[in-house]
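tool_call: predict_structure(chain=1)
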Amino acid sequence: MSKAVCLALGITFLVACSSDKQAPTMPLSVPIVTQDLHGPAAADAANGGNFGTPVSADEEVMPAGVVNTSRARGNAIFQLSADGSELSYKLIVANIENVFQAHIHRAPVGVNGPIVVWLYPSTAPVPGPFGAGRIDGVIAEGTIRAANLIGPLQGQPLSALVDLLTSGNAYVNAHTNDGVGAINTGPGDFPGGEVRGQVEHRGH
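tool_result:
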């Protein structure tokens, strides 16, 4: 065995025995290769992305003369797949009654806009029953694909929805209806929407 090899082994043995602590290491950095996608959502679609919003009565835009005193709260959470073809979601609520539908709508803050995706009861554009009572926790989860886009986004790729989410021009709201007589009579009976939140891009 050469002197150089013996010396290297000796130093290694001394270092290993001198302390049980491991030397700090530098963070591992992995370069990200993006795909050639289209529109402002290109980077998100290439690597996946997170979006979400809290929902509450504070952001809901009500008809003139209607006061929304709802104490309901919730969250909508979205995760874009790495290839940009699927958007998984969860809709979570508390202190709310008679939810019969929930959606993503296209519009900026303070403006009501058209539905572009159904979230509750599912991505199928079919409402649930009126007067179903209290509902809490994760009330809907699933996967949104291009085929689920409706209204002004119907027939477009999923990147059109991701562009709206990224730019802040989409909101989530949950609609309620007690199925009894007049509408907008109070919490649990706001068919136009009881809780709302503007979706934000939350990074990767």
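agent: The chain has a mean pLDDT of 84. Proceeding to next step.
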